[in-house]
């Protein structure tokens, strides 16, 4: 048995090029980020971070990595080439999740404990403003044109629509219990919000903020209360939406046009967030409780491998092959 | 009569017997399908989540037990084939076969190959239904599984042959089924991975590891994922060779002569 594993590993190694795309994953309990080679599917590096790293995203040129170090009350900026923390950004207390504006400059950060969205200028490293939102803000989305930022608040059960020019809330829309994540359709026409306890995903029309539909989930053999949608990702062509179902250990594949669930894909335990590989052929899911990342082939929609990372992987971000 | 004709006759008889007994074909399929649809569905959540080779990611319990159920078919087919030998012995057909002018090992080998061929048909039907249910393997996996299934089928068939040489009457065979099939099936990696067994009892895990049926199942499991499990291959071949040698020994004329008052 060991021999066959070794043979398999040797084969996959021999086929792998020296450089490859990377998936960076924050490990909430280990206070580290793991770097997965997107081709060989092996962890090639692990770097220390501040306490309880959760949200993670790259600058547009992939030269800087932003990490929400929640218990360090900071957003850390890492040089992804060296793994060194360059500096911290002021973030307000307990930053959990954030979103980088399309201008590559402003970071919108959810401060879970203070019911505030903090806007930080990543260049001047100053707080631009703080916006009062509902209780326990978490989900952060921004429209592709950068005009609307949406913060969802877990306890108020609302999506707060913020005008990025005035930094004022222009609308509040109710969703089901404990909204966790907000994701705009790539063309900006729709906003999708997942509700963890409600077990649903609500779809809004961006222009009118009117509800277009609500999606429920059901998997044979799994109790309904375990179906807790959290992270969401649109497929590269925008035709499908992948919804991580938390302790149901499955990712739902939703048809973006009909809002029907097409299938469920088995992944690791308590699947949280997802990221597409830079070549857009694979989806990587962070599985918190099992401490690993499941890789899904987007062509076949089959899980092809699961990679061990640190304890409680939370967020994921992709970086194309470094030059 | 050439050797080929003798072998063909045995094979044709086995396949014909199988095909004409339609209920036998369905019975052979119903057993593993009940396990797949009922047992596995009920126990879906019971299996601890852990990734073990040849798997590279998480799998459902149905996916886990599919190779074990292929093994179950081969095990029952092996026993069924030997059951027919006991029947042949009682009806006198066996005397006819064994008096053919060919070495005993050759005739028994032909019987074994015939039994394995029939078992392979049953497994193919089972895998087709499992695929329709959503448990699929790659085309390469199905292809690689053929030699693994043949080897496993021959090994379990040889075990059946050996047992049939020791059992004189059909009535006694039911006991053999209970004492051989059930322990072999349950004390193997067919239903639960060995690490799970190890957690509850290291002794049971040890017995499972020594069970040739475990190795037959693992050989098939790895093959379905295009991999060769060398230790499983070795143990299956070794056990198959040993059982066949014992069967040839058991069917030596001096030992097959019916006891006074029998046959």
Task: Walk me through this protein's architecture.
The complex is a heterodimer of chains A (323) and B (263). With 323 residues, chain A is mainly β. Chain A has a domain at 20-229 and 314-319: YVTN repeat-like/Quinoprotein amine dehydrogenase (Methylamine Dehydrogenase, Chain H), CATH 2.130.10. Chain A has one helix at 2-15, and strands at residues 22-27, 32-37, 43-48, 53-58, 65-69, 74-79, 84-90, 95-100, 106-111, 116-121, 126-132, 137-142, 148-153, 158-163, 168-174, 179-184, 190-195, 200-205, 211-216, 232-234, 240-244, 250-255, 261-266, 271-276, 282-287, 292-297, 302-308, 313-319. Chain B is mostly helical and 263 residues long. Chain B has one domain (3-256). Chain B starts with a helix and ends in a 7-residue tail after the last helix. The model of chain B is unreliable at 259-263 (pLDDT under 50). At the A-B interface, α1 and β27 of A face α11 of B.
Q: Characteristics of this structure?
A:
heterodimer, A: 323 residues, mainly beta, Methylamine Dehydrogenase, Chain H, four-stranded antiparallel beta sheet, 4% helix, B: 263 residues, mainly alpha, 12 helices, 0% strand, globular
Q: Low-confidence parts of chain A lasting 5 or more residues at pLDDT below 50?
A: 5-18
Structural class determined from secondary elements of chain B? mainly alpha
Could you give me the name of the CATH homologous superfamily of the domain at 20-229 and 314-319 in chain A? YVTN repeat-like/Quinoprotein amine dehydrogenase
Q: What CATH architecture of the domain at 20-229 and 314-319 in chain A do you see?
A: 7 Propeller
**End-to-end separation of chain B:** 27 Å
In one word, what is the shape of chain A?
globular
Query: How much of the residues of chain B is beta strand, in percent?
Result: under 5%
Assembly type of the chains comes to heterodimer
Nearest-integer average pLDDT of chain B? 85
Give the C-level CATH assignment of the domain at 20-229 and 314-319 in chain A: Mainly Beta
* Overall tally of domains of chain B: 1
Using only C-alpha atoms, the radius of gyration of chain A works out to: 19 Å
State the helicity of chain A in percent bands. Answer: under 10%
User: Main β-sheet of chain B, in a few words?
Assistant: none
> How many β-strand stretches of chain A?
28
The profile of the biggest β sheet of chain A is: 4 strands, antiparallel
What is the mean pLDDT of chain A?
92
Biggest interface = A-B, 20 and 20 residues
Whole-number radius of gyration of chain B? 19 Å
What structural category arises from helix and sheet content of chain A?
Answer: mainly beta
What percent of residues of chain B adopt helix (DSSP H or I)?
over 70%
